[in-house]
Design goal:
six-stranded antiparallel barrel, about 160 residues, about 20% helix, 3 helices, 6 strands, alpha+beta
């Protein structure tokens, strides 16, 4: 994770380490993306890929989320898990988005997207090759703050 991020101030006792955040985001599939639309906040679920520095979203380009983020690149993202109070754990990211590659994505060779697409499609679809429907494109989120919580630490359980 980047050293330039604003530090988490509250909840240090339950905060995840950088390694715990990376492991958690590697195993999770769905995030909730919050954008700012003309009528206020707009939240939607979306699959993602975290590369340890950037949060990658493969979004439909005709979605309200896309229009919102092209107008205002500020974004909030939450990934969480757990059923009961002492099982809750998650990560919240705030940052800004930018497009990477062609919009919509048409499979033109792209050195930056090649490894991201391979990891994304393997993680989320179990496939070895990315498919391109010319309806989606890539958004790269640069985090400016990452906050985390792991209530399992309060219960004395190992944060596996």
């Amino acid at each position: 994770m980047s050293e330039q991020l604003r530090p988490q101030k509250r909840g240090r006792k339950i905060a995840m380490t950088a390694a715990e955040i990376d492991a958690f985001l590697a195993e999770q599939r769905t995030c909730r993306v919050a954008s700012i639309g003309p009528d206020g906040p707009h939240a939607t679920p979306l699959w993602f890929y975290w590369d340890g520095t950037y949060f990658w979203l493969y979004s439909i380009t005709r979605a309200q989320r896309w229009a919102d983020l092209m107008r205002d690149p500020r974004i909030g993202i939450t990934v969480d898990a757990g059923e009961d109070y002492f099982g809750l754990h998650g990560v919240e990211i705030t940052g800004t988005v930018e497009t990477v590659g062609e919009v919509p994505r048409t499979a033109e060779p792209n050195a930056e997207l090649g490894p991201i697409e391979a990891a994304f499609v393997k993680k989320n679809f179990g496939l070895d090759e990315m498919f391109h429907d010319q309806k989606h494109a890539w958004l790269r989120v640069t985090p400016n703050k990452i906050a985390s919580w792991d209530f399992r630490k309060l219960a004395g359980e190992p944060a596996s």
